[in-house]
Structures are given as structure tokens and as C-alpha cells.
Amino acid sequence: MNSPDPRILIFGDQRAIIYNEAFAAVIGRHHPQCLGSPLADVQVDKIFEVLWDMSLTAYDNGRGARRTRQELLLERGGSMEQTFWNIFLSPLPGLDGYCDSAVGEFTDVTDLVVQDQRRSQGLDILDSFSKVESLPELWSQFLGALDKNAPDISYAMVYTAFDHSCFVRSEGLPTPDITPRHETLQSATSYFVKQYQLSGSLGLPERVLEPIIDISIAEPSGTPSLPDAFREALDKKDLMVLADEALPDELSVHVADSGTVRCASILPISNLDGKPLAFVVLGLDPRRPFTEQMSRFVHCIHEAICKQAILVTLPRDQQQFQRKYEETTMALSTELRLSILKAKKKEEKFLRIAKSAPLGMYLYSPKERTIQVNDAYLKITGTTKEDLDKTTALELPWLQTVSEEYMDVAIKEWQHLMTEKTPSAIEYKIRDSSDNPTSRWVSATSFPDLDEHGEVYLIHGWLVDISDRLAKDTLLAQRLEDALETKTATEHFLDMVSHEMRNPLSAIFQCSDEILNTIQTHNNQSGVPSMTTTQLKGLEDAAHTIALCAQHQNGIFNDILTVSKLDSQLLTIMPEKIRPFDIVQRALRMYGQEAKRSDIITSIDVQDTYTKHISEFVMADPNRLLQIIINLLTNAINHTRSCRERSIVISLGASVTEPEDTSNQTVFMPPTPRRQSSPLTPATEQDHFSAAFLSSCSEQDVYLHVAVQDTGCGLSESEMGLLFKRFSQPKTYGQYSGSGLGLFLSKELIELQAGRIGVTSTEGLGTTFSFYIKCRKPIEEPASASMSTPSSPRIKGHRPRMSRTEAFDDKDLEFTRQPSPVRGLHVLVVEDNPLNQRLVAKQLRNQGCTVHTADHGLDALEFLSKTNITSSSTPGTKLDIVLLDIEMPVMDGLTCIRKIRDLEQEGFYTRRVPVIAVTANARDEQIREALEAGMDDVVTKPFRIPELLVRMSEVVSGQHEIDRRL
Prior knowledge:
The protein is α+β, with helices and mostly antiparallel strands. The two termini are 107 Å apart.
């Protein structure tokens, strides 16, 4: 009932009615008598008759009733007015489910209906003129069109010029006794027609019409007359509208079904030369008010008649030309109207989009200093349209929304836009208001529109609230900074732990080597009191135990570091050219003595598929492959050492397609869901190479199969469920059984190499772990291709040979008994740890080296300045190689090596100084950094002296070869 449109409620069996205020205005004088009355008692008007008929449908059938464009005559302003309505009556069910009331909705569509009627009437008139060739035919067709369709016109009359003799020159007429208005008529026209005869009418009986009207007779009586109206229309040369007191009595007639005409129009018709041809009189329907729309409609009728009258009075050739001209004009007008309509619809659509758009939109005219904005702009800036209108007199009204600290930036950007006439974008802070003290940031993008002179006449743009985005960016930056700090702290922690654990482990290994070497030397010397066999065996066992414990501790430590790298996504695969068979042999050599002490027989089974698909070399990561095989081998040794039958077989196979299961029907474990690459860890060139190597497909791809089979105690189903989980293991095998990380890491490392692992086991009979990894057959390089040497570490892609602590092997003692490859070398050991410095120096001296020591990098540089490699003419101390630690006080190893290489470039040294980094910094990034700084090789702690001697020999020999060629 609060609706601005008419609404009515019909309720109860009596169908009583109540309605809102808008409906009361519709029924007029029937209000308030109808309010609350039964509908049957107020059927005194058409509107209630319609409602009664519609209520029958609603009450009896329970369905809604609809009337479209229903004509209703309503009393408005003391007269009846024709209106049109869309009526919809909705039934309302009662408690029993049957309709006992209804709601009526009224929508006024009068303007729409009248507009359609007038459009149709105008088209009928134009269509009737299409074949007219004379004036009498024109009047006949016009009246016929009105008779067919003329809801706005109650009657029509056509008075035509009597005959051609009636045309006389106005200059030859005697001055009649008429009013000054008539004098104006004579002086303003070239031709004057005295009499007009009735040539046709519509809607009026002929008895009430004057057959001839003489406008030359001037008898002013003070009352309006039709001749006076004709003379005035002829004087103005335009149609006249006569209404109320200005309407002559002969035009104020009663028309059936319409009422008494209160308004009429006089349409003067002339030819192209201005000669009067006729007057058309139209009596307008009294049931429709004379509005602006009605005035335009009458003008359209007048224009159409005048054009057609001019056309038919022209000569035939001109008629054809004029008709073609009219058709062209009509087509162009129609096209123009359609274009305007389309443009208007597009504009309305754009305005709707602009109004509902979530981003601010603005149009600013610099010359007129006006600004138009949408609702989103006002919401974003926190202003109102009234506040914005108050600032239009200012040069830049939008500046009132800019925060003070960004005012200069905004003005500068605006000046750049106006002078350069190019688009502009700026981000600034909105001025805080009392209603919204929260800081808001916006991004404004402005585009200039140029006029024909190249000047900016309009600026349009977009305003986007970026407060949330900036807040998220700030939060993301903070979290990124926190994550980087956490990552850095983690790396520092790992480096510290690595450094502090690897240094003593290195000392332990070197001490055990020295003990064993001393025992062997004692046994080989003659004339020295021999020790008892029991004593020697005890010392040897103690040395083995020290080495085994250190190796075990180092293995656990390496596993923890590997897990940390996996969690931090720092672990990458670095393929290189390797022999898989050599990797397996190396693993067995490392743990051969441990297996031998437990009476375990180890062997390698090379299957036919291996020799078929792998000739000799493949591209794979040797360290990761060795780590996997070692984990599985040590696991097999732990399972087997307490069993009656003790054997371990490592099988090698290959295939060119990815296997589904192995020959022993091993079911592979489902892969672990991979984490996405960390955005905090920058991808290195090696990372991209590894990813491309593993993800791409090539004809050179080959899958390496490895199986480790033991005759150990086997696993039950429940124990197999614990496999490959972090820090879990099925059983405990002795005092040093592992950390529970070995199988977990093996699975992770295998999957990083595009492979999978599986297991088969029978409790009491043994276990077989099988896995495969993706490799690639190497591309054979030409024999003439240049090869990088250990003395050229800066070559891109050079991979350091990182020393990993291996299980103690008696073959190492054979190495120490052979002539030392470094005997006679002059070595500088740069180490800040006194214990490690002393042990390394002692071991090297035992190998026949001349050893010098330095505590940090600065000491090393000072020592180098006194050696024979300087350009000084004074003979200095001989020097062949430098063993350089990295983490040292005063001057670290990286700074020292960079200084050494710089001095070489400057010519301070006469030759290149071979330098090997001996460090506990074992991360790949740290090793790459050392090589890039200028190291020739890197040996990571813990290391054993035999390994170090080999690396020293290779570096020195390589440098000597380069020096010889130079």
C-alpha cells in the first residue's frame, strides 16, 4: 500500500475494497465513498467493471488476471481524460487454501500507448500520400487516412482556394476597412486569396459547416471567427492552435463519443512560391490534453501535408526530383533516427555500467571546470556530489580529495598530462575525513581527449581503490622478509652445526688413520721391539671402532642435513657422466670391511638388460645414487648380520621405458606429493638444468634399475607399514642402528630423480628393495673438444668433487704404504683450528711433504709474499699448493682467495697458485661460491688423508701441465 503506483485490495466474500492514496487519485470523485464498500455496490465506473470481471477469474479459478493497455476514462480537472493501464490482479489464498482476497496492481501506460498510436497514424498518412498526383487527391487521401486511424482528431475540414481568379496581387487591392493586423497581412504577403471553399470534412455534419469562407471581409465583432483565424494563420505562415476563449464558436462543436471540442488547429498550406492553397482545420480530441507531444504531432502532420502539396504543384520533372529528394531525405532521417536511437541506447547502457561499476569513473572538462563522476568514485573518495559541485569553480576540483603529502606529486602529474597530452597514472593517498579516518589508497589513470586544435578539452579516467592490495603487498613483503630471515637463520644454524661437527669428525678420522698407519709401520720395521698380537689386534680394533663410530655419526648428521635441505627445498639433482657399475663397486668397497667382519658375502649381479641398454656411461647424479645405494646396503647389513645365512646381492638392470614393477614382482610405493617450488629460494642455472633433464623426454632416456637383496630376518606386514616414514624403522639392530631417516631419504631422492622404490619381503627369509631412476645416455663429444682441468675452476658448469667420508677400508692402508704421490711437495696449511692444523700438518709431513702453517687469510698472504712465486728478485720459500680453510677470523678463506687471484692478475705472482678449499661448509651453494671465488677444488670435512692426497696430486699435476704448455 506504500507503493507510489495505484494498488487495491479486494477481500472477503463480499469483495470489499481498500486502496492506497494513488488509487484514490485515479477514481476521483468516487473516493472516499468506495473505501471499504463491496465491489458489486460501486460499479458506477468502467474501472470497477473491469475489476469485477477480473475478480471472477481470481476468486473462481485461483489464477491471476491480467489486462494490458486497458482504456479507462477518468475524471481529471473537471473533464474526462482517456488513459491506458496495465492491470494485474493476484489471488491470495486463505487458511483453507482457497482464494478469499486479491491484490490489484495498476501501471499507467498512457504515454506509451498514445506514442504508438501517433506513430501508426503518421505512417498511415505518409503511406496515403505515396501515389498522390493532384491537390484534390491529396485532400481525399488525407481525410481517408484520418477516417481510418485518427484517435487524436475528433474532426477535420479542408478549405481550398476557390479558383485561380481569386489570386490577385495584394498591391492592386484597395485598402479595406480592417484592423492593423490586416494591414500587416497585406504588406507581408505577395498573393492574397479572398475566398476558400469547403473541399472535404470528417466527423462533422455538413449542415454545421460554412461552404465558403471569405477572408477579405473585415468585420471585427470582438469574438473569434474562422475567417479571422485563417487570416492570422496566413499572416504568421505557420499553424495556429485555438483553445478555450480563442476558439471560434463554429469550431467548438460536440462530437459523438468524444464530447465538445475545446482545442483546434489551423494548418495553412501553400505552394513553393508561397501562394495559399488551402487551410486544414483539425479538431483535437477533448479527452486528451494538449501537451508538448500533441503539439509536435500536429506539426508533423502540417509538415507532411505542406511537402506533399508543394510536390504535386510542381512540374512533373521537378516532382520526380522532389519525390526522389524526399525519399532520400526520409531514408537519411530514418537512418539518423536509428543511429541516434542506437547511440542513445549505448549511452544508456554505458551509464548503467558506469553507475554499477565497482571502480570510480570521472569526466573532467578543464575549460568548463565541470566534473562528472559515478557513485563508486564518491564512495572511494569519501565525498558527496554536493561537496564535489561546490569545488567545480576551482581549477582542479579533484585535488580536494588528495592527501597533503601527495599534493605536489598529483599537481606535477596533472601538469605533465596537460602539457604532454599523454595518459597518466598515479597512486596516492586519499585525504582522511572525520567520517572515515582509515587510510585509503587509490590508483588513478587519466586519458586526455584532444579537440581539432590539439588542445585537451576533456579528461576521462578510472579510480581504483588499492588499499586492500597495498595492505596485502605489505603483509606479503613482511612475511617474505620474515621467511627470508628464517631461511637465513636456518642456513646459518646448519652451517654452524656442520662446521662444529665436521671439524672434530675430521680429526677423529685422521687420528684413526694415524693409529692404523703407525701399527702397520711398526710391523714393517725391523729391530723394533714387537708388540704382542693381542695388543696389535686391540689397537687395530680400537682404530676401526673409532672410524666406524665417526662414520656412523657423520652419516646421521648428513641425513639430518639432507632432510633439512628437502624441507627447505634446497636439494637439487646434478647429473654428470658416470658408470653406474663403478658407483655400486664404490659402495661395496666402502662397506666391504663391515660386511666382512659380519661374515656377509656381497656380490654384484649385472643383468642382460643392463648391458643391452647401457653401454658404459649414463648421465645421473653420482652422489645421490651412491647415497641411496649406501642407505639400502647398510640397511641390508643390519638385517643380515645376525642371521644364519648371510649374503647380499646388488642387481643392475635397465630399460628404455618407465617400468611398472620389477622382475621379482615388486610393487612400487606411491610417490610422495611434491611441494611447489619455494618462491623464497632463487632458482639457479643448475636447478633449471636438473628440472629440464628430469621432466623432458628424449630418445636418449634410459631407466637404471637397482635391487638390493638380502637373506636377513625379513619384515612382517605391520613392520613394512613403517617403511619410508620419517624417523621410523621396523626394528632396532644393535647399538648403532640408524636414525630412521635412511629409507625416507632414499625414497625422496629417488623421486627427485623421476623414479620410484618398492619392497618385497618374507619374514624370516629376507628382503629386496628395488628402485629405478631416470638417466640419459651421454652425447659423445669430439676428441678435439677442449676439456676442463682441475686448474680451471671458473669454467661454467664445473662440478666440484666433494669428498664424502667413507667407511674405513684396509685398501686405504695399502695406499699409505705405497710411495706418496705428494712426497716432496711444499704445502701451506691455512687453518684457524689448532688441533686440525696440527693433525693435517703431521699427516702431510708423514707423507714426505714440507708443511708451513698460517692461522688465517692475512697470515697466508703475508707468507705468500715471501715465497718463490712472487716477482721479487730475492729467492723465497718454495711453495707448490695451498690448503685453505674458509671460516677463519681476521680474513676468511673466500676473501683470501679473491685477493690471491687479484694479485695474480696484477702480476705480483709469477704463476698461478694452486689452492684447495678444505672446509666444513658442505652445502652445494657454498661449494659453488668457493669455486667461483677462485678455488681449484673443494674438499669438505670430515675428510681422510688418503683422499686429500689424491686431490692435491691431481691439482698440482694439472697446474704443472698448464705451466709446461705456457
